[in-house]
Design goal:
- The protein is α/β, with parallel strands linked by helices.
- The chain contains eleven helices and ten strands.
- A hairpin with a 7-residue loop joins β2 and β3.
- The radius of gyration is 18 Å and the shape is globular.
- It starts with 13 loop residues before the first strand and ends in a 16-residue tail after the last helix.
- The model has no long low-confidence stretch (mean pLDDT 96).
């Protein structure tokens, strides 16, 4: 009698959604030569996981070849610097999503994150599960997570129900990235053995109090010391110090947005480029191609 090994994602903690670097030319051509330096910078700052081609990385405005190239270069750097690598494959036509799922699994990445279908949007939880069931067949040995970000994709289905159904029907489904301020529903998704990554920088301490143990946040590229200290203090029951770090992190977020154009990715990318990190991610590609 043969048995199937359960697919799991062991990573817990803080993961940085990395920027994609572009040259400042007419086409905003992609630049991958600085990825190794970028990976080393994050590791030296105490960050042990990265998400590639997510919202911060402008994944949906990259073509298929670019997304695969960025994934390959980050996989090389992740192995070298001992980073957990998650790759976002959604926000593209279904054949491309499938190809990226196959590609990510062939490399051996640690996890795959996927947006829903963005044009023919699922109308209910059941149809979203069917979409993920299809994607999961092309990366059966890699942990698969759903990317819940309703403010960007305009889809806000009931995540606790989705998680339960997906977990029952998709062998490699392990959880979600939860980017929403509705922590009540987010908390209802929490379950032992399920990976739920909080995606709200200004709500980290609140999420930890409610039971979250992991987060994917843009500011980990810029000022990871605040979030790392929040995690450490909460583990040691140093609530007041954790509150102070959260206040400082929230203040930094507000400052970055005020000094930028108010839009999340362009403002955060500008702040990252202003660091003395040895890495520049260049301009955003949004609205340029």
């Amino acid at each position: 009698m043969s048995t199937t090994k359960k697919v799991t994602l062991e990573f817990k903690g803080l993961m940085a959604p990395v920027f994609t670097s572009f040259n400042d030319d007419k086409k905003r051509s992609i630049q991958v030569d600085n990825i190794d330096v970028y990976a080393r910078f994050l590791k030296n700052k105490g960050v042990h996981g990265v998400l590639v081609n997510g919202t911060t990385g402008e994944g949906p405005v990259l073509n298929l070849a670019e997304r695969k190239l960025v994934t390959e270069k980050w996989w090389e750097a992740s192995k070298k610097h001992d980073l957990t690598l998650m790759v976002q494959i959604g926000g593209a036509p279904l054949p491309d999503v499938i190809e990226m799922a196959i590609h990510a699994e062939s490399l051996g990445v640690h996890a795959i994150l996927c947006l829903p279908e963005l044009y023919f949007k699922p109308k209910n939880v059941e149809s979203l599960v069917e979409y993920f069931k299809l994607i999961g067949k092309y990366c059966p040995n890699t942990p698969l997570l759903y990317y819940h970000i309703p403010m960007f994709v305009g889809l806000n289905l009931h995540m606790p129900t989705f998680c339960d159904l997906a977990e029952a029907q998709i062998p490699n489904f392990v959880g979600i990235k939860y980017t929403s301020n509705d922590l009540d529903l987010g908390t209802a998704c929490l379950k032992p053995g399920r990976n739920i990554f909080l995606g709200a920088d200004t709500l980290l301490i609140a999420g930890l109090v409610l039971g979250f143990d992991s987060a994917i946040m843009t500011t980990l590229n810029i000022c990871p010391e605040f979030s790392i200290n929040i995690m450490k203090c909460m583990e040691n029951n140093q609530i007041q110090e954790a509150q102070q770090s959260q206040k400082a992190l929230t203040g930094r977020v507000n400052q970055i947005l005020a000094q930028g154009n108010g839009e999340w990715v362009p403002s955060m990318k500008k702040a990252f480029n202003n660091l003395k990190s040895g890495v520049s991610a260049g301009p955003v590609r949004e609205f340029h191609v």
